[in-house]
Amino acid sequence: MGKKKKDKEKKRQVPESHIAFIHCTRCGKAILNIEAVSLVIQNVPISVCKPCYRKATQSGSYD
Predict the structure, then answer these.
(1) Which CATH class is domain 19-59?
(2) What is the pLDDT of residues 2-56, one digit of tens each?
(3) Are 46 and 25 in contact (CB under 8 A)?
(4) What residues contact residue 36 under an 8 Å CB cut-off, 6+ apart?
(5) Is there a contact between 26 and 38 (Cβ–Cβ < 8 Å)?
(6) What are the structural domain ranges in the chain?
């Protein structure tokens, strides 16, 4: 039979020079740019942290 492939969750490989601290547009907390959620709303790019993104999607303000 064929070989079984293991599903491994690979993290994004990002060079260290591309990692930087940015501020969440919604709450102002400092976050790493690789952990931020980037959104484009009405042609305006914003970056929010994951807790803010979850709150906003639950309330329906980012849908």
Answers:
(1) alpha beta
(2) 555 554 555 667 777 888 999 999 999 999 988 899 989 899 999 999 999 999 8
(3) yes
(4) 22, 24, 47, 48, 49
(5) no
(6) 19-59
